[in-house]
């Protein structure tokens, strides 16, 4: 804490706060469209289906299920993982392949692409006249979020490491702000399409945060490609190789550490760094796999008829409480740092097993218990995210840090995609009981 206070009490205090605020707004704006599309796209698709004169197969199935007593669960015809899968697959693809070539695109151009695709997502879903057009809008939101996350995480290497706290808190705030603002606007009488048009202000805020609020170093490559040779961003911190201490397989006897190397990273270098990142990527992926399996595969099946909230309201508040937990823990990097992401992955899997058995055996008697578990789930997930990238930044050499920050971002998206795929058969299984 003393070190952080010195950073803010010195001559650069104003610049430090501007950069923290800039990354906070970038985090919020980057994840905002992703969060909103999980709700808004479903609303608009439902509106398009009900506008038809003939009931669709999904509606017929829903009517059949609603009139049947063969299932003990109050089921939707399609799992809520359907929209999640459309919202995560483009992001996963971008995070998996872009780190190997994205350094050839200047940061200024990347941010313009994020702004353009986020704007296109809101417009496409707002004015969609078909299911395909709505899905295309969701895909654009996913592209914007994926490209933005790996770009802004890489961007943090040009700033003091404490800006990661601002980024993490902003991404956590996106979940709360997206869910609450969408609900508030629609509750106030705006249609989903009108609400999305209002939210076109979000890409504008992203542009202002990046181009006006951040204070870039004089040597920052805004409109030209990054020159990796001899570059030493983030020079206020001690730097170590990616795999340090006795685990460092890249440093042999008599060899210099990676940051003393010169020249751009080769494809072989990037694969070697990626192998070293697996100890961060795997536990982060496990945390998010368990987390989103709960959110999209189980929570819609945890309905308590005797509670004061309806099924839809219970599910909505489950998601809101979860997002609040994520926001709190993603904002915790300024106060506490947790090295054991593996422990968080184990605890999150225990949460998933507990709620799975709660769905199967009905062992929970009240929705309040689910709210407590879901809040704890959000705390674990948010803490795993910010601590993973904090320690990657801390334990990575200068030459490899920018690539490492971008490449590691694939972990959470891979876990989310796997959980979405698993949620479909789990949903169908329980609804067939």
TrEMBL record:
Keywords, sorted A to Z: Lysosome, Membrane, Transmembrane, Transmembrane helix, Transport
Pfam families: CLN3
Transmembrane segments: 21-41, 81-102, 109-127, 133-155, 162-184, 196-216, 277-295, 340-361, 367-391, 403-424
GO biological process terms held by the UniProt record: axonogenesis; lysosome organization; negative regulation of neuron apoptotic process; regulation of intracellular pH
Basic and acidic residues composition bias: residue spans: 232-241, 251-261
SUPFAM superfamilies given in the database record: MFS general substrate transporter
Protein name in the entry: Battenin
